[in-house]
Amino acid sequence: MATRAPTAQPRARGASGSWLGDRTGWTVGAARLATHRIGPWEVERYAAVAAAVLMLLLVASGIALSMHYRPNATEARGSVVEIASAIPFGNLVRGVHQWASDLLVACMWALCLALCLRRLYRRPGELVWLAALFGLLLVTQIAFTGAVLPWTASARDQARMVGGMARSVPLIGEGLGHFVLGGPDVGAATLPRAYGFHIAVLPAIFTLVAVAYWRLAARMSEGLAERRTAAGVALPRTIPVYPDFALRAVAVSVAVVLVVVSLATFLPRVPGITGGEVETPPWYLAFFHQILRKSPPDLLGIPGPQFIGGVMTAILLVVAALPFIDPRGSKVTRWLALVGLAGIAALTVYGLQ
Amino acid sequence: MAYSEHIPGCGAERSLGHLTPPWPSVRRRRPARLVLAWLAALAALAVLGWAPSAHAQNECVRCHASLSEKRLRSAADAWRQSVHGKDGIGCFGCHGGDPADPTVRAHLAENFKPHPTRQEIPLVCGGCHQDARYIRRFNASLPVDQLTLWQISGHGVGLARADSSAAVCTDCHGIHDILGQAEPTSPVNDRMVPQTCGKCHSDAAAMSGTKLPTDQASGWKRSAHAKALAAGVPGAPACNGCHGGHGELAQTAGTIGRVCRPCHKAEAQEVERSPHKTAFARLGFSDCVPCHGAHDVAAAAGALLVSVSQGGACARCHTKDEKPQATAKQLQGMLDDAARTGDEARRAANEAGARGMSVPGLESALAELRTAEHRLGPAVHALDPSLLEPEVTAVKEAAGVVTKAVAQVEDARKTERLGYYAATGLLALLFGLLVWKSVRVARRRPA
């Protein structure tokens, strides 16, 4: 008697219900995401997606650039010229890196502004607000340390200006300036220091902050939803995270790549190899530099730059403490944010002229 | 013994007999007493354990700086900022006196000289500045022939002829506030020299006793030399560049060519081959001045050559000669052609740079072009189109290398652009599809 051959058993699915979930224990799947609902136009989410894509672009282009860049005072400028002229697509990659860096700073400004205007710094979003603010400071530092790397005359001027800004911080100014520049003034130690911070220290910290932001933002979102449910308040309209928001996030990512590559192609960054350019600060620090430049030499018996530095540090601390100063999210805060932003924009334009 | 031999710190051991001035106003002193006094002072100081020096103690400055009378105080203040003050060369180096005496008795010293006369000043300065051993203690690169050169200069000869308006050291260098030549505000800094010389040489009253014109400084300000100096071109001459510093010499027709030659060697060589060489020699003209001018030296631009009807350089002499005018026009045409080709190549390079294009080898190609263009200037001095032709060809070839390099990169850029347009199109299409899908998903879902 012919025995019946055993039929092939259907491939059993594990508890997670997905191939990856069985092997990794990760349980976040499409079905789970589909149960989460969010507002359709929450700007901070799109800004965060754009920031993440820009960071990926920066890492990818940065790795490519680091293969040819030589971080020492004698070879840095030559290697940048070599990247721009002799390496295939070198100038395009350099342009992508620089434009992505500028857009990342702009994105972080937009993220912080959205959190402020949408009053998301209130409970339970205090840590989200602090993470976003810290992220903004970090990307500003990443962009600045990157601007020093070509080691041109203007790059050294910018380093000197930022060193001056650091020195204007009260109490720790001298030490901070020394720490930023690797000495009392811009010198051979500045470049390797800037390079180390640019490619390793600051991006590593930013990655940790970014991961923390995503986790905290997700928790905040859940917390807000729970509060709304408990209060019986429903959003007028929501969309599921998957597939609606996921599709939009992919579209934003594609748009970001499109914009960065287009800017790098049509508005390329010419490497400043000639030196002796007009002294202009980086755009994201132009407002601060402009205030310092116009400050009188003496204010209330304190040297002008130190006074301004003290005021700016105090403003930054007040902004960081906003969730605790204004836990209800008053309209005054919104107006102050808008007026402050307009002032910063005006000073930036003025400072770059 | 000359006055300068009494200067403490300058060394009494120097013999200045060969530099005894031709004027008789220097007061002489008996040497034996002074030598004995010095030996006694040295012995006393040796016992006390410190060696004498020109700047070990300066009671003069300490006292004068505290005086309320500005005239007396300002000298001490100015000295402190001066090169002498910074090097510790005390007042007594020039004025004598007793710098160790903190009282007014310091002025009673036998060698005290509050106001050296104009005749004495060059020897006071020269007392130290011609002593190589002494000077090299402070600045090894400082020359020590200033006094000798000044004595043969128009200024030195003028003073020897009892012309009291002839310039001495302090007229150009200042008195107590003497600064090193490298200091930007020093009156003998290259950028300040025209102003310093012009102080007298542009002053009709000061020059009234001479036959010298007073338009040299204003002419120089219009010159190519002034523009080059302002632009920081190394070696660009102010007055002293051609006339010398201390050995200032009025140039005559025979000497001007020799003055220009050290800097403009290539041009001078070509002038030797030009028809001007024999004509100028016959007419007693200088080699360079008839075309370029003297103080208002014109830039080597095309306008210098032709424009016979517009008062060009050639028209100054060649008003009727047909052949020189025709040659000048031919040379001008060739130079214009070369300039146009070079400018076009540079424009292409600049436009490429402005568009962010990095052209491999562009810098060296542009440097070659500049070198070829620089050779045009000397070549035109031969006034022979056949000798200029190879240089014009070299410029065109160098410009061609630049244009070709830019064109190659532009071609490559076009290919890149095509690839970019394709990638952008795909990304834009993907973006459009995602937006469409997103909208469709939202619409299908019941509200």
Please describe the topology of this protein:
The complex is a heterodimer of chains A (353) and B (447).
Chain A: H1 19-24, H2 30-35, E1 37-38, H3 43-66, H4 76-85, H5 90-117, H6 126-148, H7 153-167, H8 173-181, H9 190-231, E2 239-240, H10 241-266, H11 286-294, E3 298-299, E4 302-303, H12 304-320, H13 322-325, H14 331-352
Antiparallel strand pairs in A: 1-2, 3-4
Helix pairs in contact in A: 3-5, 3-10, 4-5, 5-6, 5-10, 6-7, 6-9, 7-8, 11-12, 11-14
Chain B: H1 31-48, H2 59-65, H3 70-81, H4 83-87, H5 92-95, H6 121-129, H7 132-135, H8 146-152, H9 154-160, H10 169-173, H11 193-201, H12 216-221, H13 224-230, H14 239-243, H15 253-260, H16 265-273, H17 275-283, H18 289-292, H19 322-354, H20 362-380, H21 385-444
Helix pairs in contact in B: 2-3, 8-9, 16-20, 19-20, 19-21, 20-21
Keywords:
heterodimer, A: 353 residues, mainly alpha, Cytochrome Bc1 Complex, Chain C, two-stranded antiparallel sheet, 14 helices, 4 strands, globular, B: 447 residues, 21 helices, 0% strand
